[in-house]
Write a structure and sequence with these properties.
The chain has 3 helices and 11 strands; from the N terminus they run αββββββαβββββα. The protein has 196 residues and is mainly beta. It has a single domain, classed as outer membrane lipoprotein receptor (LolB), chain A, CATH 2.50.20.
């Protein structure tokens, strides 16, 4: 399940800082305007291990983590499912519903952080706005913590804590947003065919 924890990502993007706490309305608007992302990443898992690779996001509902060797792994979120492909194994991918990860909150078609019982923490640490959010219908699946700066608004970090309490951080390098990404690169069925 180490690769599943990749869904517990942290994003770091350039920003000039901020002067006050951003509202949930501002943050919802930013996430709704964030249609795609492409970035290299460094993942730090619960056990302290470090992996690198490339992350692609296409909202709503699509994400792809490509891990560099020696991992040779791919994690896909698409069609309301998550599939974990281990390139060093001949076994079929491990799959489970996307709704079982708090990442589904920001991959939703419409993000509304003001929804009842979704945000359980909304703080300002002097440099960034930090929100802690969960699926109000399934809080047992864990929560996501997102850190934003302003001027302009940027997502600097997200960390997911799963239902078992494990935390994983993924730090992105230089990112490109709102670029063209083909739906086919997020296809679990296509990836399964490639691995056969």
């Amino acid at each position: 399940m180490k690769f599943a924890l990749a869904l517990t990502a942290s994003i770091i993007l350039p920003s000039s800082g901020m002067a006050e706490k951003l509202s949930l309305t501002e943050l919802s608007g930013f996430l709704n305007d964030m249609k795609t992302i492409s970035s290299d990443f460094t993942q730090i898992s619960e056990d302290g291990s470090v992996q690198t690779g490339r992350l692609l996001i296409k909202r709503p509902g699509k994400m792809r983590f490509e891990y560099n060797p020696p991992e040779k792994a791919v994690v896909l979120a698409s069609n309301n499912a998550v599939a974990i492909f281990d390139g060093r194994s001949n076994m079929p991918p491990e799959t489970y519903p996307l709704r079982r990860t708090p990442l589904s909150i920001i991959l939703a078609r419409t993000v509304n952080l003001s929804a009842a019982n979704m945000v359980v923490g909304h703080e300002y640490d002097g440099t960034a706005t930090i929100i802690t959010a969960q699926d109000p219908k399934s809080p047992e699946h864990g929560y996501i913590q997102l850190k934003f700066t302003a001027d302009p608004v940027e997502l600097r970090q997200w960390v997911i804590t799963d239902g078992a309490g494990s935390r994983t951080t993924v730090i992105l390098g230089a990112s490109r947003r709102n670029i063209e990404l083909s739906n086919s690169i997020f296809s679990i069925e296509r990836q399964t065919g490639l691995d056969n």
